[in-house]
């Protein structure tokens, strides 16, 4: 397995840019390689965390809580 190919396909996946052909290539890599599956989950989890922290946080009704 070539890590460069996996990284390229993961980038397309995370950006929503997979074609049908590249989707099939990524699926085959994931089915055939435990290393690829581990990398996939690490990258998708990281991507999800980065999206979560990049969104502005809102307090309830924009009010501060006081005790």
Question: How would you describe this structure to a colleague?
Answer:
This protein has 67 residues and is mostly helical. The chain has one domain (3-53). Helices cover 70% and strands 0% of the residues. It contains three helices and no strands. The protein has helices spanning 3-15, 20-32, 34-54. Helix 2 packs across helix 3. The radius of gyration is 18 Å and the shape is elongated. The protein starts with a helix and ends in a 13-residue tail after the last helix. The relative contact order is 0.13. The mean pLDDT is 87.
Write the layout of secondary structure elements.
Elements: H1 3-15, H2 20-32, H3 34-54
Helix pairs in contact: 1-2, 1-3, 2-3
Keywords:
67 residues, mainly alpha, 3 helices, 70% helix, elongated
Q: Specify the number of helices.
A: 3
Helix content: over 70%
Tally of individual domains: 1
Mean pLDDT: 87
Quaternary form: single chain
Q: Uncertain spans, ≥5 residues at pLDDT below 50?
A: none
Class from secondary-structure proportions = mainly alpha
What is the molecular shape? elongated
Q: What's the total count of β strands?
A: 0
Give a quick precis of the structure.
This is Zinc-finger domain-containing protein. The chain has three helices and no strands.
